Amino acid sequence: MSTPRKGGDARRRLAAPTLAMLPRIADSLSFLYLDMVRVVQDDTGVCAQIQAGDRTDLVYLPTAALSCLLLGPGVSITTPALTTLARHGTTVVCVGAAGVRTYAGILPDSLTTHWLELQTSAWADPDRRLHTARRMYEMRFADADLPNTVDLDQLRGMEGQRMKALYKILAQQHGIGRFRRNYHPDQWDTQDPVNLALSAANSCLYGIVHAALLALGLSPALGFVHAGTQHAFVYDIADLYKAETTLPLAFALHQSPHPEQEARRRFRDNLRLLRLLPRIVRDTQHLLTPEATTATDHSERHDVDMVHLWDPKKGILPAGVNYAGGDR
């Protein structure tokens, strides 16, 4: 009698969905951006209909290999197509041109909660939240060897000095006088070109970070450095990239008559979206992964079922088991 049970258990384990079966979010096809197409479901699969003069070209989407589909301007999608994407565990995000704005996201039921659980557990523990915030500041200082005695208040001060020094260097490179970051939404039209371009470019960066966080199933609201806004974690992650992306771009537009429009256009043209998104994913996963973990690839977990039970003493327990005792 024991042999059939073992065989049945093995078959159930093989049939049960696990994270190893999901497409890796770090794969080259993790993110696909579309614009000016109609996405439909036909007898073969999900395809993008592209109108080319009098003919309609079809491009079939690799739904089983996609982690996130970005729908840009001019895209329409049918309910059957959305159903297929959800069944394959693909996150669908409505974005602006080249993904520089994020408006809404549709998360599939099959999306793992692994990264969300790591985020919330670190956010809810004051010590771990402080540690994660410190790691964020350390990432901004590149290879600088920061002593363990440096507290968060000192890190904020060091970050402020770093940004001032960067402002000064960029201002000198472009022949600008003393620059001061100035952001007042109620006085938008009175801002200088650099500030206008920087605000516009930062908003584009926020949209890309937002899309990446949604693709991971994370909460954009639970930040470690920022707080009090639905985009707190978006601001946390975006701050890691401003010094190399939006700041140089903004200073380069100091003489532009239309700095906001130029900043958005150049950001879209030069960012190479499909390279930045995987980088954001990797950096975010690195921040949320406990340092004790020695695995080199944190993009997913292969050791747990997608659905499990939680116990405060025993940790993760298998689901689908009758715990009443006796013969199960």
Automatic annotation (TrEMBL):
<dbReference type="Pfam" id="PF01867">
    <property type="entry name" value="Cas_Cas1"/>
</dbReference>
<keyword id="KW-0255">Endonuclease</keyword>
<keyword id="KW-0378">Hydrolase</keyword>
<dbReference type="GO" id="GO:0043571">
    <property type="term" value="P:maintenance of CRISPR repeat elements"/>
</dbReference>
<keyword id="KW-0051">Antiviral defense</keyword>
<dbReference type="GO" id="GO:0016787">
    <property type="term" value="F:hydrolase activity"/>
</dbReference>
<protein>
    <recommendedName>
        <fullName>CRISPR-associated endonuclease Cas1</fullName>
        <ecNumber>3.1.-.-</ecNumber>
    </recommendedName>
</protein>
<dbReference type="GO" id="GO:0051607">
    <property type="term" value="P:defense response to virus"/>
</dbReference>
<comment type="similarity">
    <text>Belongs to the CRISPR-associated endonuclease Cas1 family.</text>
</comment>
<dbReference type="InterPro" id="IPR019851">
    <property type="entry name" value="CRISPR-assoc_Cas1_ECOLI"/>
</dbReference>
<feature type="binding site">
    <location>
        <position position="239"/>
    </location>
    <ligand>
        <name>Mn(2+)</name>
    </ligand>
</feature>
<dbReference type="InterPro" id="IPR050646">
    <property type="entry name" value="Cas1"/>
</dbReference>
<keyword id="KW-0460">Magnesium</keyword>
<comment type="function">
    <text>CRISPR (clustered regularly interspaced short palindromic repeat), is an adaptive immune system that provides protection against mobile genetic elements (viruses, transposable elements and conjugative plasmids). CRISPR clusters contain spacers, sequences complementary to antecedent mobile elements, and target invading nucleic acids. CRISPR clusters are transcribed and processed into CRISPR RNA (crRNA). Acts as a dsDNA endonuclease. Involved in the integration of spacer DNA into the CRISPR cassette.</text>
</comment>
<dbReference type="InterPro" id="IPR042211">
    <property type="entry name" value="CRISPR-assoc_Cas1_N"/>
</dbReference>
<keyword id="KW-0238">DNA-binding</keyword>
<dbReference type="GO" id="GO:0046872">
    <property type="term" value="F:metal ion binding"/>
</dbReference>
<keyword id="KW-0479">Metal-binding</keyword>
<dbReference type="InterPro" id="IPR042206">
    <property type="entry name" value="CRISPR-assoc_Cas1_C"/>
</dbReference>
<feature type="binding site">
    <location>
        <position position="226"/>
    </location>
    <ligand>
        <name>Mn(2+)</name>
    </ligand>
</feature>
<keyword id="KW-0464">Manganese</keyword>
<comment type="subunit">
    <text>Homodimer, forms a heterotetramer with a Cas2 homodimer.</text>
</comment>
<dbReference type="InterPro" id="IPR002729">
    <property type="entry name" value="CRISPR-assoc_Cas1"/>
</dbReference>
<keyword id="KW-0540">Nuclease</keyword>
<dbReference type="GO" id="GO:0003677">
    <property type="term" value="F:DNA binding"/>
</dbReference>
<dbReference type="GO" id="GO:0004520">
    <property type="term" value="F:DNA endonuclease activity"/>
</dbReference>
<feature type="binding site">
    <location>
        <position position="159"/>
    </location>
    <ligand>
        <name>Mn(2+)</name>
    </ligand>
</feature>
